Structures are given as C-alpha cells and as structure tokens.
Amino acid sequence: MGYSNAAIKRKRLDQENQKWPDHLVEIPASDWPSGFSEVRMSVWRSAEYLVQIFEPKSGGQRMTVSRTSVEAGMWRDGITWDELQLLKRQCGFGDFWAVEIYPADDEIVNVSNMRHLWILAFPPEFAWRRGEKSGAAK
Q1: Is the Cβ–Cβ distance between 86 and 98 less than 8 Å?
Q2: pLDDT of amino acid 94
Q3: 11 domain residue, yes or no
Q4: Which residues contact 18 (CB under 8 A, 6 or more apart)?
C-alpha cells in the first residue's frame, strides 16, 4: 500500500522544515512565495513558522504568520500570544505596538490558519501600560 499524494507532500514539507533553524531568518526576495496583491516587504522562515510582512493598500505594515506544518489539510493552528510576541521581536518589531483585528461577523475572511498583526506607528491610547492600575473599582 503506497502513500497518498497528501502524505507525500506532508513528508516533503516535514523534511524541508528540518532544514530551517528554530529562530526566524530573512528569506531573499528571489525565494518569496508568489500570488499576493499587496506589496510584500520581507519574508521570514524558521522550522515552525512562515512570517510575511506586507504593506497593505491602506498603509502601515501587516505581519502575517502561519505555521509550516500541515494538519488535516490546513496549516496547523494554535499560535499563542507568546509565540506571536516572539516572532514580532524576531522580525525587528519588538519596540513597536501591534494589534490583531476581530472583524464584524459579516466581514470575516477566514481561508487559512493564519494570524495577522498590524504594526502600529504609535502606541494606541487604549492600551494598558506597565504600572497602571487595571481599571479596578475605586
């Protein structure tokens, strides 16, 4: 009994992942994936993550993160807050604030297990700061 096409692709992907380090490294533009309408600024890869930095038409920068392993035919899910913070730092945005957007139900676009962080030029006014009281009743 032979491997299915999906199993062969998953095995190749697992072998490719083993070639990469545990931390993100920047990929040369000549090796970037194709097929995006937004301007791609940089691409980063590790054994576990693919991170692409885009300049959306609306301006600013968006950091798109996916795992590099597949589960049930989709990119493996379950990227934690701590992992996103580490990846943001490894891409050079450790000193910047970022937000993740949860849209209204009629605006949801969910085609893959990817996370998107928008890098902010300025700290948001609504953010908690270290040392501030957390809104406890007075």
Answers
A1: no
A2: 96
A3: yes
A4: 47
Cβ–Cβ under 8 Å, residues 47 and 17 = yes
132 occurs within a structural domain: no
| Token pair for 80 | 């934690």
Residue range of the domain that includes 14: 5-119
Identify whether 30 is part of a domain.
yes
Instruction: Establish if 125 belongs to a structural domain.
Output: no
Dig out the tokens for 38 from the structure.
């937004």
The pTM is what? 0.81
Q: What is the pLDDT of residues 16-26, one digit of tens each?
A: 888 999 999 99
Distance, CA of 92 to CA of 75 (rounded, Å): 24
Contact 24, 51 (CB under 8 A): yes
Structure confidence by residue, pLDDT tens digits, 74-113? 788 899 999 999 999 999 999 999 999 999 999 998 888 8
CA-to-CA distance for 73 and 36, rounded, in angstroms?
21
Q: How many domains does the chain have?
A: 1
